[in-house]
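Lab notebook, bench 4. The sequencing result for the construct came back, and we need a structural model before the next group meeting so we can plan mutations. Quick request posted to the team channel:

Model the 3D structure of this chain.
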Amino acid sequence: MLKATNPIPVGKESSIRSKRASYDAKSKSRSPNKKSPPKSAEMEDDWAFLEDDPPVASSSSTNSAPRPVAAAEDDFVMLDDRIRTSAVIPKMSPPSSSSSLTTSKSLFTSPGSSPIASGFLDEKKYQKMVLNEPPAAGKAVDSTLWKGIKIAEDPIKARLKLKFLIRKGVPSDLRRHVWMSVTGANYFLRAQSQNPEELYKAKLTEVFGPRLPEKILKPPLFGGQLTSEYFYLKEDAVMSLKRILVILGMDFPDLKFSPMIPDAISLMLHFMSERDTFFCIYSMVQESVKDHRYFTFSPTDCNVFILTFKDVLKKVVPRLYQHMKKKINLDIKMLCEEWFSHLFLHDLPFRTVLRAFDTFLNEGARVLYRIALGLLSAKEASLLTAKDAETFVNIIKQSASQLYNDDVFLKSCFKISLHPDKVSKYKSKNKVKSRLEDSHYPHHIYYRPKVSTPSSIISEDLFEIIYEWIPMRYRITDPVLLYTSTTEGFSLKRFLKKMEDHEPTLLFLKSAEGHAFGAYVSSKWRVTGKFSFTGTRETFLFQLMPRMKKWGWTEGGTESFLSVEPTSISIGGGGSGVGLYIDEDWIGSSGECDTFKNDPLNEDKSDRFECVCVEVWGFQ
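Done. Here's the predicted structure in token form:
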């Protein structure tokens, strides 16, 4: 994990040998000192109305903290100067000779016409969306309001100074810098001993190893979803999103359930590079550890957040609350869970979502209460006439989809009287009241294995799937290649001598038909004698190509896991066949066995196959 500043509070011998030789020939050709943050403090006017906006004054206060990252001379940076000088995203320096990370420039300086709004926004898609908006859509944000405004890198100061400006709208070309400041990313980076590019490159190397993966099949989603229909992103943004999710899963093992994180990252990638998006979301998660300013960490936290909203709803719109609860029996949790989990992306127009997201980054998750209350209050009269839950939901969805005038809508949201002390009181009460046990929610420890030596049988991304099958205690280890026929040949005697003391292991086989399959073996590969078996119920068989499937021990089945003889290996037995059998010439067979109730692994009409490649992997 990065060192945080605690920013604001991963039999036919000749024929067989020729095929193996042909296969082998093809194979060969193929963080820093900590710095104490400013103390967190709630703004007394946190819920002030827009019409009471005070004038935004500049400040010249200073901060003497060390600045390894290029920055202005004082604690504040002029936004218009920052745009002119293009000093925000320096070109990526060539990797040092000590680093072998294979990466691309787009990780650090994403394509974009502006040095500030350098992200993955697909401008053609976005402009098409804008042109399809009705005439009543809101006007573009008045960028003149931001001219000459100074912004503090200290997030507490930035939030205070920019609060009312952000509520009135952030120009797209300023979003990167504003978001970096209010989330605490700039403050975090300023305290590091490395520049942002080297720091992020080091993090990529730590998580993925010397090569970045071409595919990521199973990133941690924290209860959320990977969706594309609600965004206007270029295709390469998907891998950036997945990489960031993997790093978060590796660095924050306690982050069990936070469904809005994938969508929050996707929104940021519209206007920021992968590197900057990572530091923003990292700072937000770090700050949410204690007080959940932005994100929940568990199902219980999420439940408390929703119960608190129900209390707020009851207080602000009591008639509507009673109508929903008693007359139409609407599950309020079901309604608002969709809103909060996806940051209203499934309901509000995209530009309105962006405006709401700006305020969310500055003021925290309680802004989501205001947006939800604004949606319900705007159509209260119509909603009170709904005679059933379906009609109610249709009214609110239709209304939300037409809220193109983001300025008018957000202004109405911030007119709602709601004091932070009351919200805190409701939250404290619901922490005690909530009976949802986190232990009922399966806590999946995410770890992306780093494959230091490429396999000759499977692609690196398939290790992600295999690691979901192995016992939990080995999921935080990396695979290490212990044996390969490419260099060791096809001597069963040599194989057993080399592998006899290794446990547990993964056996990968590739047949002449091109199928890949194998077994997870929980015991050592020592000679047991005929009809003698070792191993545990953790042993299993699997297929990798052409399909992926696992067969574990079946309840009531024989416990015939591993039998090793000087001239053969058997994995799985009982019934009419052997799950996986290999003789001394590495000719094998596979059939259904009582131990695993498996399908034939080679998926061929004949149950016999020739091994053209063999690998055994251990864990370290």
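Residues 288 and 294 are 6 Å apart (CA to CA).
Will bring this to the meeting.
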